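Give me the fold.
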Amino acid sequence: MSALFSPAPQFLSANGLEFGLLCVGPSDGELVLFAHGFPDTAWSFLPVLEAVGAAGYRAVAPFMRGYLPTAVPADGDYRVTTLARDLVALIDELGARRAVLVGHDWGAVATYTAAALRPDRVRAVVCGAIPHLRRFLLRPSPAQLLRSRYMLRFQWPDAEAMLAADDFAALRALAQRWSPDADLSGALAPVIGGFAERARLSAALGYYRALPRSLASGEAWQLLLQPTPVPACVIHGARDGCIGPEMFAAQEHLFAEGMQSVCFERAGHFMQVEQPQRFAETVLAFLRDLKN
């Protein structure tokens, strides 16, 4: 068994883009691919990667497109279908036939979409902080519509300047509102370091700005609205100020192969940062259940 561990990113080209990757665990272990969200990087998954890698899995976390050190796409394409194809292409380039995908926030959006796009390549999914996309898009609660108003603010041309002002005070405040009880300084440090390069901040906002284009696509609607075709585990924090706990209720019918629902009572949006050991244990328990 050959070991694979990179405290510094490795690099791999997939879907026409060079990705930075954090890799932990044996290179011949079953691939578990972790996808981060906003405002975040692959670094926040590192304690989880170490636990999953120690259990014998090949745990790999890419820095999503546009996030340092992954390349910024020249065509500015951040559609949800493109994010999903990134994950499938990474499975290919990592030499795996199938993988379990673990996504948080935008990474969960990409994970749901990749499973719908290529269920033959995605064995199962773990989605953190995001309910099924049909539930989110078609049945948002009034409270959720209010929480999600930041998405509209990110469409404005001055959103970069607003977030970056006063050493990213607005960005820090937004993340803190989403995880009100957490110390996010460590997780935000590499995010803000990357966003100091304005093109990186524009790339992260590009995910939100691509939503109208994504939702204008018939392919995207078909993928986003269909029941998830693989086994799933959905994790949310009871203290999440970004996606409310009510959004995770009554969605079991949207998972064709079953869904485990896990609530972290004392966590907010960034539960993998707040409770990394429990997050890792939840992922590993789900992986064990897949073998039974």
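The longest helix spans residues 159-178.
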